[in-house]
Amino acid sequence: MPLVTTGEIVAEAVSARRGCGAFNAIQLEHITAIVEGAALADAPVIVQLSQNAVRYHGALAPIGGAALAAARAAEARVAVHLDHAESRELVREAVALGFGSVMFDASKLDYADNVRETREVAAFCHDHGVWVEAELGEIGGKDGVHAPGARTDPGEAAEFAAATGIDALAVAVGSSHAMLTRDATLDFDLIARLRERVPVPLVLHGSSGVPDDGLAEAVRAGMTKVNIATQLNKVFTAAAAGDWRAHPEHVDPRKYLGAGRDAVTTEVRRLLQLLVLTDA
């Protein structure tokens, strides 16, 4: 299957007025589970590697190369995306490695500096044919910049997108990173108003904390790219730990890691079917 880009998957979802799933991977088991889940769902998928995941591995090339290789060999259409990169050096490394998209996160800076930094990164990436996502004001629950109750202003979001030349924008509409419960309440009216004003597709971060019906309604309201990380970690850890407790004689890590991988495959398939089958 030819390697596709996040931009292609998002554009198709926008055209069909449906959602698309973007799942964060930490290790190889995540990558293979996401790819297999997409094949079973018969849906395209975006595999994301965050700057934190890169830091865990010590470098981008090993885990990034594995994700690209898995995407090229996949039965499904798989894009590979760099998520929450705060350094230009990491963005350049991802572009050189062959990533088709990056999310550059300068949201810790004030508005003017965020615009300047993001505009320069977007120009570099576009010169290399790479799609760019950015964030206006950090999504609640990460490093304490603002609470889950924070909201993105539609007018400011439209100005930011126009000033930076980005291809998609992550917005704050009630979700929060790293939630362990799925009870976040999204502002669907705000999503609709953002969709009307912002000239690029909208991205929902912190989607693991949103229940299924909330995800479906967010897509109907105008959200396109839906990022999910913590939910996969929850099901992976539960399955791996359950296997280890049930079979303490399993000293071969493939036993319990395999159980975790299978659980993630099932969850990715379920979530992709939810997002892709939801339309306006």
How much is the radius of gyration in Å? Answer: 18 Å
Mean pLDDT: 89
Based on DSSP secondary structure assignment, what is the total number of beta strands? 8
Largest beta sheet: strand ordering: 1-2-3-4-5-6-7-8
Outline the biggest β-sheet: 8 strands, parallel, barrel
**Structural class, judged by helices and strands?**
alpha/beta
What overall geometry do the principal axes of the alpha carbons give? Answer: globular
Describe the 3D structure:
There is one protein chain. With about 280 residues, the chain is of the alpha/beta class. It is about 50% helix and about 15% strand. Strands 1-2-3-4-5-6-7-8 form an eight-stranded parallel barrel, surrounded by ten helices. Strand 3 (about 80-85), helix 5 (about 90-95) and strand 4 (about 100-105) form a beta-alpha-beta unit. Helix 4 packs parallel to helix 5. The protein is globular. The two termini are about 30 Å apart. Residues about 140-145 have low confidence and may be disordered.
Sum up the structure in keywords.
11 helices, single chain, eight-stranded parallel barrel, 14% strand, 8 strands, alpha/beta, 280 residues
Break the fold down into its secondary structure elements and pairings:
Elements: H1 6-16, E1 20-24, H2 28-41, E2 45-50, H3 51-57, H4 60-73, E3 78-85, H5 88-97, E4 101-104, H6 111-127, E5 131-135, H7 154-164, E6 168-170, H8 188-197, E7 202-204, H9 212-221, E8 223-228, H10 230-246, H11 253-277
Parallel strand pairs: 1-2, 1-8, 2-3, 3-4, 4-5, 5-6, 6-7, 7-8
What would a concise description of this structure say?
The protein is α/β, with parallel strands linked by helices and 280 residues long.
